[in-house]
């Protein structure tokens, strides 16, 4: 069972709110920080979790979010420089915290010494940001409809399906194993789910947890 984690999201715009809602939907604890007072009022109506009003580049504001008790912080404002500054300040206050910064442009590894991960424009969605933050071997590829997810899952060694063929597994109704993650092989009855290998699964929202329990234990 995935343990509950605690995340701090700096920036309550579209991406920040979507990320917070996605993480909260996975039963994680999330604190939002937003500098715009009008946006804070909107967030209070749209988001049920705690929202801090203030500039996340300021240590006094980050301290309110209690970073020492957080697993990671994601700086998701519209300004790359602001996001990097937030992450650097967060690391000063909580050296072990994981950091994710939204950036508009970069060359490969440009920010590797500043942050642990960078969210690029082509991935500017709260689903992708949430996947990067949780780091649970699960990656959302696309949300085709409100009720259907296409996810990439790594099978753990202790998973109930590990080492078994697909025709030996009773996947729940509303789910379909599509292929290996490299898309080189479509899944069939004789596909064996190997530990530490990644697979792409189409799954209806109401059976996601059941599928993840089978593939991750």
Characterization of the model:
The chain is an alpha/beta fold. The protein folds into 2 domains: 129 residues, NAD(P)-binding Rossmann-like Domain (Rossmann fold), CATH 3.40.50; 79 residues, Regulator of K+ conductance, C-terminal domain (Alpha-Beta Plaits, 2-Layer Sandwich), CATH 3.30.70. The protein contains 6 helices and 10 strands; from the N terminus they run E-H-E-H-E-H-E-H-E-E-H-E-E-E-E-H. The strands form 2 sheets. It has a 6-stranded parallel beta sheet with strand order 3-2-1-4-5-6, with helices on both faces. Helix 1 packs across helix 5. The longest helix has 14 residues.
Q: What would the keywords be for this entry?
A:
217 residues, alpha/beta, Rossmann fold, Alpha-Beta Plaits, six-stranded parallel β-sheet, four-stranded antiparallel β-sheet, 6 helices
Main sheet characteristics: 6 strands, parallel
Instruction: State the CATH topology of the largest domain.
Output: Rossmann fold
- Listing every helix as H and every strand as E from the N terminus to the C terminus, the arrangement reads EHEHEHEHEEHEEEEH
Are there runs of 5+ residues with pLDDT below 50, and where?
A: none
Rg, Cα atoms, Å: 19 Å
């Amino acid at each position: 069972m995935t343990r509950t984690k605690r995340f701090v999201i700096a920036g309550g715009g579209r991406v920040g709110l979507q990320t917070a809602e996605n993480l909260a939907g996975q039963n994680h604890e999330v604190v939002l920080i937003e500098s715009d007072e009008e946006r804070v009022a909107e967030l209070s109506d749209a988001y049920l979790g705690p929202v801090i009003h203030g500039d996340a580049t300021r240590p006094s504001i980050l301290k309110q979010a209690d970073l020492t008790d957080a697993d990671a912080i994601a700086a998701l404002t519209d300004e790359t420089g602001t996001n990097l500054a937030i992450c650097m300040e967060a690391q000063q206050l909580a050296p072990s915290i994981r950091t994710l910064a939204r950036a508009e442009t970069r060359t490969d590894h440009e920010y590797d010494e500043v942050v642990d991960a960078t969210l690029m424009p082509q991935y500017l969605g709260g689903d992708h940001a949430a996947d990067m933050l949780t780091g649970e071997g699960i990656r959302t590829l696309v949300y085709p409809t409100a009720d259907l997810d296409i996810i990439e899952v790594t099978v753990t060694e202790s998973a109930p399906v590990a080492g078994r063929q697909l025709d030996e597994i009773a996947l729940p109704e509303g789910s379909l194993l599509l292929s290996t993650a490299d898309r080189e092989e479509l899944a069939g009855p004789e596909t064996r789910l190997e530990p530490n290998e990644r697979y792409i699964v189409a799954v209806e929202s109401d059976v996601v947890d059941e599928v993840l329990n089978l593939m991750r234990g």
